[in-house]
Design goal:
With about 325 residues, the protein is mainly alpha-helical. Helices cover about 70% and strands about 0% of the residues. The chain contains 17 helices and no strands. The N and C termini lie far apart (about 95 Å). One of its GO terms (molecular function) is guanyl-nucleotide exchange factor activity.
């Protein structure tokens, strides 16, 4: 046992001094072998690093060769299709690279008409020096002015020849535009009832269920936050327009403008009752039918029940 331990200790000492079990190595040979091993390892790392660097440079070079697609080398219809997906800001930036393409009148005409669907100037012979890019800037400026002061905004459009001084033209512009602030628009329509009358006639409620038609109406002409004369005016105008668009339906159901007026008020009250978190005891379907038929006796219970279901499932009519 003691001899075995002695051999192990002796072998470890010989290895440290440059010996091995099979022969003798000088310290110089040991150093050369170690240096050779280190050099080989270093060479492998350099080779590996060289391969990685080569692939990196190759990939970078290929990306530089690819770059951005040059739209001027594509067919014009394809280039215009690509640029048509850009908004006004991005199209202005694209004009720094592809000036002729990005400044094309058809692109800016599409931007104008997709944002402001109707302007009086669209139906006129364009004046000298007219461009749709300039028109877009004027329309954007006029919309911002309207959202600050509606009267000044409309006057700006008229001063630039964009809109004619006509209630019908103003109503068409409002109906086809979604960039106007609804609070300012509500104030403007309350003051300009002539524009409001023409705006109501632009709605088509044919074959629409009453609550859905009322929602569409209030999406364009926002209801006031409180009850009052303006809300009564809106509901009255809506009732007459709804009956005018659905003469057969109103005859079959026994509806009249007065009956639709009552139903609209009932739908608004029901919407508040069902959606308000402050009302704990919600109105039941039976209660709604009973209360509504007291005001509109000629309306069937089934129709009133469908009205309740619509508000219960879809939500507020004036949200």
């Amino acid at each position: 046992m003691g001899q075995g331990l002695w051999r192990v200790a002796r072998n470890q000492q010989l290895q440290q001094e440059g010996y091995s079990e099979h022969g003798y190595l000088t310290r110089e040979q040991s150093r050369r072998m170690a240096a050779s091993s280190i050099s080989s390892t270093s060479h492998r790392k350099q080779v590996q690093g060289g391969i990685d660097l080569y692939h990196l440079l190759k990939a970078r070079k290929s990306k530089e060769q690819e770059g951005f697609i040059n739209l001027e080398k594509l067919p014009p219809e394809l280039s215009f299709t690509i640029l048509s997906y850009l908004n006004a800001t991005d199209l202005c930036l694209a004009s720094c690279v592809w000036q002729d393409l990005a400044n094309d009148e058809l692109l800016w005409q599409g931007l104008c008409k997709s944002t402001w669907g109707h302007c009086s100037i669209y139906n006129k012979n364009p004046p000298l020096g007219f461009s749709f890019r300039k028109l877009y800037m004027q329309l954007d400026e006029g919309s911002l002015t309207f959202n600050a002061n509606p009267d000044e905004g409309v006057n700006y459009f008229m001063s630039k020849g964009i809109l004619d001084d006509s209630p019908k033209e103003i109503a068409k512009f409002i109906f086809c535009t979604r960039t106007l602030n609804w609070k300012k628009l509500r104030i403007y329509l309350d003051e300009r009832r002539d524009v409001l009358d023409d705006l109501v006639t632009l709605h088509n409620f044919r074959n629409q269920f009453l609550p859905n038609a009322l929602r569409e109406f209030f999406r364009h002409i926002h209801a006031p936050e409180e009850r009052g004369e303006y809300l009564e005016t809106l509901i009255t105008k809506f009732s007459h327009r709804f009956c005018a668009c659905n003469p057969d339906l109103t005859r079959e159901l026994g509806l009249s403008p007065d009956a639709v007026y009552v139903l609209c008020y009932s739908l608004i009250l029901l919407s508040i009752d069902l959606t308000s978190p402050h009302v704990k005891n919600k109105m039941s379907k039976r209660e709604f039918i009973r209360n509504t038929r007291r005001a509109a006796q000629n309306i069937s219970e089934d129709f009133v029940g469908h009205l309740y279901d619509n508000i219960y499932l879809i939500g507020h009519v004036a949200a």
